[in-house]
Design brief:
The chain has 17 helices and no strands. The chain is an all-alpha fold. It has one domain (about 10-190, about 200-395): Up-down Bundle (Growth Hormone, Chain: A), CATH 1.20.1250.20. The chain starts with 8 loop residues before the first helix and ends in a 13-residue tail after the last helix.
Length: about 400
């Protein structure tokens, strides 16, 4: 089997493709996050209800990934990813044209389902096609594309909403999304190591259960839940803090605050290098502590110190996600797409549950309540990361156990 090696033309082209794919996915997914205060004012809804514009999308995404990862085991990786990206782009246009909040939510739910065809399959493709020594760098670069897409989607939607309206903002993101689809299709090499399976639902279900029986994978799945749950809780409601007195920032400035996500482009690659040198578990724990420190800094009333906490928390978040997601790809020796999709199911379920639950804390306890639930999530994550030292050497179930 021929693997893609770092430094080769195929490595560069695949990285360009997945960078564009990650950009596309997360620009679409998070484009509504800075607009939540706008939705609250325009549609006369609560912050918790406004958070559904993201939470409903991510839970739909989480559910659909379990389906699409199994479909990709039969149809192949690239075709499913391409269909997913194009469908999400078309639905993005429909979302931009919505005239009521209810219609927008319907399109966002369907859009989340369409987006599910890319993230888990992307991780499986990289795990299958990349040389093992090149996988960490490739995964880090892919997550960097995620980071840039998340930043760009938020900034574009925030700035253009201030200049025009949220319809124009989401329409612009739709146009960029179509361009990203073309870049992905042209550059991504066809799979060389993918072996299609016959559609045997029983075997696919058996392999899915086997992943959930592995304590290391279960811990990694839970870490994904807690990491994104805490991050989305932080950024869903910090905009309300900045727009309100005594800061009274404009929607444009709040949009630019999401520029802090660019640190993820550096942290995910840097953490991959540190994990090679010092070990995955140690760097994972360090990433979680950095995330917690950043969240706690936002409790400070001084605006600049509060803003400083955001890139710090983001650095730790992307570092922890990079390690956990890459660890899943190495741990699962069979049905990698399913293992990746399970990780991302928990990951995006954390976004939905953490993001919306934090709205209840925001309404009743203010910003201190939001930071409190984030600290609780990260405290559990630290405990689970410590358990990896005990179970990290547990052997993966045999091929027979996963239906092969």
């Amino acid at each position: 089997m021929g693997y893609i090696k770092q430094g080769s033309l195929a490595f560069r082209k695949s990285n360009v493709a997945f960078f564009a794919a990650g950009f596309n996915t997360f620009a679409i997914l998070y484009s509504t996050q800075p607009l939540m205060p706008e939705f609250t004012d325009e549609f006369h809804i609560s912050p918790t209800a406004a958070s559904l514009s993201l939470s409903m999308t991510t839970i739909s995404l989480a559910i659909s990934m379990l389906l699409f990862s199994s479909v990709s085991e039969i149809w192949g990786r690239k075709p499913v990813m391409m269909i997913s990206m194009m469908a999400a782009s078309v639905l993005s246009i429909l979302t931009a044209c919505s005239t009521t909040y209810e219609f927008m939510l319907v399109f966002r739910v369907i859009q989340g389902f369409a987006l599910g065809g890319l993230p888990s399959i992307a991780m499986a493709y990289l795990s299958e096609e990349m040389e093992p020594d090149s996988l960490g760098m490739a995964m880090g670069l892919y997550i960097s594309g995620n980071s840039l897409g998340a930043v760009s989607g938020r900034i574009i939607s925030g700035v253009l909403t201030d200049m025009f309206n949220w319809h124009a903002a989401l329409g612009t993101i739709s146009f960029i999304s179509i361009l990203a689809c073309l870049i992905f299709f042209v550059n991504l090499p066809n799979s060389k190591n993918f072996v299609p399976r016959s559609p045997k639902i029983g075997l696919l279900f058996t392999s899915l259960v086997s992943h959930l029986k592995d304590p290391v994978l279960l811990i990694l799945f839970s870490l994904g839940f807690l990491l994104l749950g805490s991050n989305v809780a932080l950024f869903n409601y910090v905009g309300y803090v900045f727009i309100a007195p005594p800061y009274s920032l404009s929607q444009t400035l709040v949009g630019w605050i999401f520029l802090v996500y660019l640190v993820g482009m550096y942290s995910s690659v840097w953490v991959a290098k540190m994990a090679k040198k010092h070990g995955q578990q140690k760097v994972l724990i360090l990433s979680l502590l950095i995330t917690l420190a950043g969240a706690c800094l936002t409790l400070e009333s001084n605006l600049w110190i509060k803003i400083l906490g955001l890139p710090l928390a983001t650095f730790g978040f992307f570092g922890g996600h990079s390690i956990a997601s890459g660890w899943v790809g190495r741990r699962a020796l069979q049905n990698k797409a399913q293992a990746s999709s399970l990780y991302l199911f928990f990951y995006y379920a954390g976004s939905s549950i953490g993001g919306t639950t934090a709205g209840v804390f925001w309404s009743s306890l203010g910003w201190g309540g939001v930071v409190g639930i984030i600290a609780g999530f990260l405290g559990i994550a630290l405990f689970l990361a410590l358990l990896l030292g005990k179970w990290g050497t547990v052997h993966q179930p045999s091929s027979a156990a996963v239906g092969k």
